[in-house]
Amino acid sequence: MSFSINRTGGVRPALSAVVLVLSVALTGCGGGTGSTGGAGSSAAGTDAPAATSGAAGTTQARPSRPSAGAGAPAGADAARLPGLGPRTLAAIPGKARQVVLVTGRGRNSPVSEVTLYRRTDAGWEPGAAWPAHNALRGWTDDHHAGDLRSPTGVFALTDAGGLLADPGSKLPYDRSGGFSVTGTGFEGEPLSGSFDYVVAINYNREPGTSPRDWTRPLGAGRGGGIWLHVDHGGPTHGCVSLAQGHMKELLLTLDPAEHPVVVMGDAASLTR
């Protein structure tokens, strides 16, 4: 689910004018209801505890204290990951050998860059680097449904899917018409095809299920449906979006045997 901003970077006031028509089988990318087997409660007006971790892989880093439950520190070679501070590095599980690093341009910016890293005996080696979008209003350490910000933190990547056929993903892949999306974003860009390829980010979700599953371990008020998905040329509701070809390459790269994670946030937050 996505929104757009004007060309000067300011948020236009009439968000209600955004036309976002999703299939009845799916409400994804940041919030809403709809389920293929999880708890289906509305995110709107729901109070939830301000927990920092729930099920495995759902940890969100906070500025006031180290994140909990994300696994053991990644080791000394993690220092080779550029732009990451000690708190962020400590949240990367020691078993992780693939990192998708999403670095936001600014705290309130919807523009970011994605770089792939692979851990080798010599340390972390960079791979492809791609332009990306994140949420309309930037980033937050305390994500809630409807805040139009992407959650910062370190999250496991365990499940994928999309409207298109599996291109050869090593992650479990759910192909479904439930990934259909129509309508337009805030600047009138078409949303069609945004969910052709999807990788679920394990923020407030149940690992090992389809990205379309609506189970929310931290409660509906903490948001969910945060994905890597196909870019439509504008900011997102909470997800990170990449060009379709780059999403396909990502699906061919991520390997559950390598315990991939996404490390995401604005550049300043990641240095903590």
Automatic annotation (TrEMBL):
Ranges for domain L,D-TPase catalytic: 146-263
UniProt cross-references to InterPro entries, sorted A to Z: LD_TPept_cat_dom
Biased composition annotated in UniProt, kind: Low complexity: 41-80
Ranges in coiled-coil conformation: none
Any one GO molecular function term: transferase activity
Region annotation Disordered: where it falls in the sequence: 33-80
Record-linked PROSITE patterns: PROKAR_LIPOPROTEIN
Alphabetical list of Pfam families matching this protein: YkuD
Listed PANTHER family: BLR0621 PROTEIN
Protein name, as recorded: L,D-transpeptidase family protein
